[in-house]
Amino acid sequence: MAIQVGQQAPDFTLYNSDKEPVTLSSLKGKNVLLLFFPFAFTGTCTKELCSTRDNLTFYQDVNAEVFGISIDSVHSLRRFKEDLNLNFALLSDFNKEVSTAYDTIYETFSLGMKGVSKRSAFVIDKEGIVRYAEVLENASEIPNFEAIQNCLKGLK
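Now predict its structure.
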């Protein structure tokens, strides 16, 4: 079932590219932006995450933690983060549990690949409530960052 605005965000623990666990519920008191993306080292994902990197000051100013999430391994994500000089955490959902919990996973993706994260964005407020949810069926599209930023401004 799709995640709805106003519902409690599903909690999770995933490992970041430094092999450290990150638990959503431990971030209460901060706004959170979750950006699910299909694969590291692909064109649209690179464009999306570099745009986020270049606007990180905005997210910091609205007390928001930003996380990119994909099914890539922590090793791939570490290299991707280094290559792009990303200044926010990338989390590995290698087992696809979080992508499934957020109902943001392709049953079948390009070339017959199964269980790839859909490009999606979720804003979660300081109390763990979903305040913005966007799941894109077309992997070549990018979330509406203007709407995301307006949502976060309203949570300040």
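The chain has one domain: 33-155.
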